[in-house]
Structures are given as C-alpha cells and as structure tokens.
Design a protein that fits this description.
This protein is α+β, with helices and mostly antiparallel strands and about 140 residues long. The protein has one domain: Alpha-Beta Complex (Aspartate Aminotransferase, domain 1), CATH 3.90.1150. Helix content is about 30%, strand content about 20%. The protein has 3 helices and 8 strands; from the N terminus they run ααββββββββα. Strands 1-2-5-6-8-7 form a 6-stranded antiparallel sheet. It has a two-stranded antiparallel sheet with strand order 3-4. Helix 2 packs across helix 3. The longest helix has 19 residues.
C-alpha cells in the first residue's frame, strides 16, 4: 500500500516563507494566515512536505484500508495561488463558502490570489467547522 508523501518536517515555517515565497504581498498574506490559523487552532505551524504549512493533525483510516496523518487545516503559498486546506468538501458544508469572496474551488481545497479577496471572518468559521468535523470523525488528537 502506498504511503503518504506529505509528512511533517523540521523545516522552519518562517524560513520557508522567507525563502520560497517570492512575492512580498504573498509573504505578508502568508504571515497573516500564520497568525490567524495559530489563533483559531491553538496550534503552532508545522511544515508538511515541501510546501504545506499545517496546524494540528489527525490520523485517518479509510474503508479501503489506506491510512495516514494529515494536518487539521493548513495552507500553501504557491506561485499561482494560495491553497487553503480548510474545507471538508462535504455537501452540508458548502453554505460556508457562500459569500466567502473571490476564490476557486478544488475537491477540498480553496485557491485564492490574495487574502483581501476573501472575508476573513467567514474563513475563520470555515476553519473552525472543518476542525470540529475532523475531530468528531477521527477524534481529538495531539498537536503536530
């Protein structure tokens, strides 16, 4: 069975942002997201893989037998957009992205160009709902 490539690393989050994110605007947005997610989760940021900044973690196991660990929520300041890993992808949670602002949607990921394009309060509610859902489904777990 395949193993997850995205695992927690010891890379410093602030150094990653400083070295990897070439746009000053995206660096500032990333620092603002660090502060927001730390406040909302009560967790310190941790690098997951090469470019994901995650907060907390949970262990999942699917009916197929595949299992692994993932951050509860996180983001990745990529060149084309900031990927926000804050959405369950469940039908009953789609109301949470209504009126969020300007974004594109993946299966369980939201892509934004800049932080000012979205409503920060709605993002906070989305983060909290996602964490609550994951903790209900997989149990409350220790920080990453």
């Amino acid at each position: 069975m395949a193993t997850n490539k995205t695992k927690p690393t010891e890379r410093d989050v602030h150094e990653f942002i400083k070295e990897f994110v070439d746009s000053e605007k995206k660096r500032n947005d990333s620092l603002e997201l660090l502060s927001l997610f730390t406040k909302l989760t009560g967790q310190e940021p941790k690098m997951w893989g090469e470019s994901i900044i995650g907060f907390g973690h949970y262990h999942y196991k699917y009916a197929s037998g595949h299992e692994g660990d993932a951050p509860l929520v996180g983001f990745s300041p990529r060149k084309s957009a900031i990927s926000l890993y804050v959405f369950t992808g469940l039908e009953e949670h789609f109301h949470l992205v209504e009126n969020l602002g300007k974004f594109k949607m993946g299966k369980a990921c939201i892509y934004i160009k800049k932080l000012e394009d979205i409503d920060i309060q709605k993002l906070g509610l989305l983060v909290q709902t996602t964490i609550h859902y994951l903790e209900e489904k997989y149990g409350k777990q220790h920080s990453s």
